[in-house]
Amino acid sequence: MKTLKHLSILLIFITATVNAQGRFDNVEIKTTKLSEHTYMLEGAGGNIGVSVGEDGVFVIDDQFAPLSKKILTAIKELSDMPLKFLVNTHYHGDHTGGNENMTEAGATIIAHDNVKKRLEAKQRDGSFKPKEALPVITFNDKLNITINDESVAVFHVEHAHTDGDAILYFTESNVLHTGDTYFNGRYPYIDLNSGGSVNGYIEAAKRGLMVIDDETKIIPGHGKVSNKEEYKGFLTMLEALRTNIQKAIGDGKTEDEVKADSSLTKTYDDLGYGSGFINSERIRLTFYKSLKATKS
Ligand SMILES: [Zn+2]
pTM for the full model? Predict the structure, then answer.
């Protein structure tokens, strides 16, 4: 019986592994040039930023492990130089799933302190990640990376999408990578269970907007390449939702009432913001929960 049980567990494991692989079989990596030496790569999961040049290859985020080979092939088409640094914008698996493979490919991983804390903790399935999947260099507030003839400002924004978010600005290329503190044209996922908050998320968008100009190309965490005008529109949406839902809370509305009241988000629902991963009901619920928890 014991063997039979083990066998069925093994079969479940194999099926799950095959499915996980299958999910990525047809994913193609699309490369978009943003400046003379910076690119955005799209596959499945968070958008990847790449800088290439005489110092080597610098990558931001790495999607899922089964895609690493395809991602590294796409990078090889841009440069033959060695992989040097990888920054994780936060700890979520669709941005860090390839970490172990990237370390094996030569990268030194850099991230906020809390990204390391979350990656080295016991994972949901009870396992622990190997040290190759963890950041080697961590920072608390900000750091600068000088690579490929420019300074890249990496700065932490507090309690935004998670408690370990970083935004990166390429000062010469004029390219901003926001991580998941910006979902282009969509309601964002704000991970309240991992230290994210509505107020912090809004502050993050303000910080990001502060460092850029009208010519800046923006790599959002999810969605198409963006610009300052769209990013400003995103901030306007967040602030409008906060105003509406804060008022509903002030009026004594319950969680269920806010969840059901589509008038609170209608303007932006009509613009298609709810058509992504987070629909209009979920964003109302997130705002309610986060604002309710904040003493105002
Ligand atoms: Zn995320």
Answer: 0.92
